[in-house]
Write a structure and sequence with these properties.
49% of the residues lie in helices and 16% in strands. By secondary structure, it is of the alpha+beta class. It has three domains: 113 residues, no CATH class; 75 residues, Roll (SH3 type barrels), CATH 2.30.30; 90 residues, Alpha-Beta Plaits (2-Layer Sandwich), CATH 3.30.70.100. The strands form two sheets. A five-stranded antiparallel β-sheet has the order 4-3-2-1-5. The protein has a three-stranded antiparallel β-sheet with strand order 6-8-7, covered by helices on one side. The termini are far apart. Its main location: membrane. It comes from Thalassotalea marina. GO terms for molecular function: mechanosensitive monoatomic ion channel activity. This is Small-conductance mechanosensitive channel.
Amino acid sequence: MQLSLMTTTASNTDYFSGLALDVEQLTTNAIPVAIGLVCFVLFVLLSRPLSQLAIKPLGFVSKSKLFTVVSRRLVSFFIMMLGFYIFLRLAGLTQFALALISGTGLAGLIVGFAFKDIAENFISSLLLSIQKPFRIGDVLTIENYTGVVDQVTSRATTIVDFDGNHIQIPNATVYKNVIKNYTANPNTRVQFTIGIGYDASVSYVQALILDKLQSYPVVLNQPPAQVLVDNLGASTINLTVSVWVDSHDTSLPKAKSMLQKNILQLLLDENISMPDDARERIIIQADQQPPVQAITKTSLDEQLEVSEDLSSDVTEIKRQADAARSPEAGENIL
């Protein structure tokens, strides 16, 4: 009986000793875990203000909103990951922390290969927002598409062509291709060819056309207009007329049409011959044909308007783009 009581007492003593050891071990482990958890929460709370402070100097490098947002989120992510790593170290999970970091790198590599095109497009968007090779409202030609830039999002550049169609071009394509900008330099050359007969004085016609061109406000004085002999045709001396206009305010097709009509009228009024290259054989039978009447030259003055609308088509395209439904919901990054 006494032996049994002693055995029971010893057993209880061992139980309480083990329990005390477990509580002590739990307390010893819980303190670093609690400290690590507090550190992680602090890092999460401080990630936003610290990231904003860290990227402040980048504002002197670029004013791009997209670049600012991406930089801030990357810095915030690394700050939170640092806090999580400290938490794992204090919790005694060093090996797990190293495995987590290695796994994150491997996962990032796999995701990078899987979403290569998306990543390339996003990086191109970021570079476009930083470098700003063009602006909203510029007239561009990108990969055989010509139109007015309406929107640039993180995915694509939207241009509106002169038929009113919205064309979305992935930013990776925009960044890698040749961009022809018609708006960067407002001075644009307008050219057309006109043929005069070999019996006409080339020097006189050149001076006549140049003098007439100076009377049009749409034609810029600098660079000066030119009338040059382009080539000698079968029946005409072909002259190339070159003028410069402000494409911001003037429609190039309208200006070209107006100038050709007025130069044609000028040459007709001055009796400058303009033979046709085509050759025609006419057989006249006097017994059956009526007398040939003299061909009279009708003036084109009645057909020409005193003042023509030469306003730029870009303004109308911009108005239509503003009124149309946007094909993509996204904020402009330029």
